[in-house]
Structures are given as structure tokens and as C-alpha cells.
Design brief:
Order of helices and strands: HHHHHHHHHH
Radius of gyration: 19 Å
Shape: elongated
Structural class: mainly alpha
Number of strands: 0
Strand content: under 5%
Helix content: over 70%
Length: 213
């Protein structure tokens, strides 16, 4: 009987990895379905069997990271810990995910906004609305007063700007070290400065390895 372990990636998963790598390296306009198939070593017919076109393939790749971001948020909600700590841990998980997927993060935050078809930008905007809605639901459990309108979208926009800055500076791998900054930006619109700074101290303790989770 075969042993356990992680299953090898499927052809579809390899195609998703290839399209993001190629788009990150040379841009969407210079990438073709033929190149994506060649990068994975599978026939072009396999690409055609999985995706209608290059845009559909890249859209599926972007959807995959949005799904994992949402999963990181939901999986860190726990009845066994304070809701504010759950928010902190969710942000940490998202930063680690973005740092671990450099090509996909670069494509999602920079390449698509610069040169990809409008439909892909609309997909990202849909994801942003979903994240904002989830952030607002989390805020309902921790905020002592109603936050200003669109506070969640503003906090998310600020976080996106920081991610783009770190990508351009070549510091994407260091993104998790910015946890305190992201925690402050995400929570101050809902909790006020004093409570947001308390969470920043918790974030610094977490990065320093202090066991409190």
C-alpha cells in the first residue's frame, strides 16, 4: 500500500503556478497559453481542457489566493480566544500567505492593475469587497462604537498600498515582520488609537516568540 504524504500537484495546479510565474516575470501581455503549457510540460490540449483562455487561467489563480486569504481569516476565529486576538492571528496568517506566494502576490497586487484585462481587475475588486465585509463582521465583535462608513475598505486600501510598496522594494519575504503596522492600520478605525496600540504590542510579542496564543 502506498505511503501517506502530500499528493503531487495536479495538472491544473501546475498550470496555475505557471501562469502566475510567467505573468510575474514578463507581464500578462507577453504571456500565452502555449507558454504556460510549455512551462508545465503538459500538452496545450490539457490547458484547453481546464481553461477557456489565458484570462480564465489567471483568474482562477487569483481566485485561489483570495480563497486562501478568506480561509486564513475564518480559520483563525476561535471561541477559545479573545476576538481581538483572533483578528491579530488572521492578519499574521494572511501576511505569511502573501510572502509564501511571491509570484501570485505580485500578479494580484501589481501586474493585473497595470496591464491585465478589465475582467481580472473586477475579480480582485469583488475579493476586496468580500474581505471588507468580513473585516466589518469581525469589527462588530470588537468595536465599542460604530466605525465610520467605509472604514473597512479604507483599512484594506491602506494595507494593499503597503504590500505594493514592499513588492516594488523587493522586500515581499519580509512582509510578516510588518505585522504590527498592519494590525494598527486594520484596527484603529474600529477600536481607536489606544486599543489599536495595545494590539500592536501583542503583535510585537507574537513576533518575538512570546507564547500567549
Amino acid at each position: 500500500m502506498a505511503g501517506g504524504g502530500v499528493s503531487p500537484p495536479t495538472a491544473r495546479e501546475r498550470l496555475l503556478a505557471a501562469v502566475t510565474a510567467l505573468c510575474a516575470e514578463q507581464g500578462y501581455a507577453a504571456t500565452s497559453a502555449e507558454q504556460v503549457a510549455a512551462r508545465t510540460g503538459v500538452p496545450l490540449a490539457t490547458f484547453d481542457a481546464n481553461f477557456a483562455d489565458l484570462e480564465g487561467c489567471l483568474a482562477a489563480a487569483v481566485d485561489s489566493i483570495l480563497f486562501r486569504v478568506m480561509a486564513a481569516l475564518s480559520s483563525n476565529l476561535s471561541l477559545d480566544r479573545a476576538e481581538r486576538d483572533s483578528v491579530l492571528l488572521a492578519i499574521k496568517a494572511i501576511l505569511e500567505l502573501l510572502a509564501a506566494e511571491p509570484s501570485l502576490t505580485r500578479v494580484s497586487f501589481i501586474s493585473i492593475r497595470q496591464m491585465a484585462p478589465p475582467g481580472l481587475g473586477e475579480s480582485l475588486e469583488t475579493g476586496a469587497r468580500m474581505l471588507s465585509a468580513m473585516l466589518e463582521r469581525l469589527a462588530d465583535g470588537v468595536a465599542e462604537a460604530a466605525p465610520p462608513p467605509r472604514a473597512a475598505r479604507a483599512a484594506l486600501g491602506g494595507a494593499e498600498a503597503v504590500v505594493r510598496r514592499e513588492i516594488v522594494a523587493g522586500r515581499l519575504a519580509q512582509l510578516p515582520r510588518l505585522l504590527p503596522d498592519f494590525v494598527y492600520a486594520a484596527t484603529v478605525p474600529f477600536l481607536g488609537q489606544e486599543e489599536a496600540l495595545r494590539l500592536v504590542r501583542r503583535a510585537r510579542e507574537l513576533l518575538a516568540g512570546t507564547a500567549w496564543v
